[in-house]
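Quick entry, no commentary yet.
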Amino acid sequence: MEEKFGNIKVGHVVLVKDDDLFVRTWPMAVIVAVHPGPDGLIPAVTIRTNKGTYKRPICKLVPLLDSSEESRPSTLPQEDVQATP
């Protein structure tokens, strides 16, 4: 399960899975701390929701798009357009 997160970091926004709720009502959370295991993988994180701060395994989280600069391409692909004189 750890593989789907890639480089999970503090500040990433996630949905918190809850088997008692419909998917569209899962709460959003922000990762406030990561807890790496002895193998270097991150099995658990501390998240902050509007109801409090909790430690959760990452298999109970769904990562949302990362809006940080490192996830965006530094330049947009350029089309091959010839300049007309």
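second:
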Amino acid sequence: MTTLLKNAWVYAPGGVIQGGFVAVDGPVITYVGAARPEGVFDCEKDMSGRLLLPGLVNAHTHAAMTLLRGVGTDLPLQRWLFDSVFPVEGRMTAADIRAGTALALLEMLACGTTSFSDMYFFPWEAAELVADCGTRVYPVGRLDLDSEGLLLFTNDGAWMQRILHPSHEIEKTYEVTVAGAVENAAAELAAVRSVDGEPIAPARVRLLRKGKETAELSVTIHEGKNRQIRRMCAAVGLHVKRLRRVREHTLSLGALPEGGWRELTADEVRAFEQEK
């Protein structure tokens, strides 16, 4: 579906365009400029002078993330955000924000992204799945592109930062199907104490099912280092065929179908914050 956003103040790398246009084809920005682009669009929206920042949701955070790209890439996501991004964000001047935002926009326009999620290394399709929830929501953490299962979204930024902070040590449980030398897979995986030279806390591992060449394991971790379970499996000679998150702290995926969503109850929110 092609959409034309018109009559907007548009923040572009060259400055703010008054009465500008942004054209979008599905998830891709196809045009940003002062003149109306050629062609016919499926939908046109009059923005009535509202400010558009193509591809950006939070200029402070995105500017900090862009300026810090390549710094601390060996850190897990939560530590990178709290130890690197958020402290820099709090000290940024107006000039810093303008430079970082302009750079982020140049990168996004170059690759054609429109989504907040791509800046957070998160596939834009997941945001589309909750588009009908009635408000703009953001992912609490992430799932790797080749993983599946439970993912929380929220419109409460303060709640999200509390949950993501490493001090909470939120447990996450995954069902992992592995192939290889599976005879002692659970014990060997539970014994892993480092990945690629980086110390990790021990995981709780249970054998759910075992076949001749594959096994299904339940793996619970709380550190959330980048691709931690896949790296742990690789360290003991196991190949991950499927990785599915089924529980996060007090919340379980249950029978929620793939691509489905539901609202948390007030009791679930309270339990999630209170239980340790």
